[in-house]
Amino acid sequence: MWKPQWEKANVALCEAGVTELLAGITLPTEVFYCDGVNCQSHDLLIEKYYCDIVNCLKTVENICVPSIKVGVQKLW
Question: Which residues contact 31 (CB under 8 A, 6 or more apart)?
Answer without folding.
Answer: 42, 45, 46
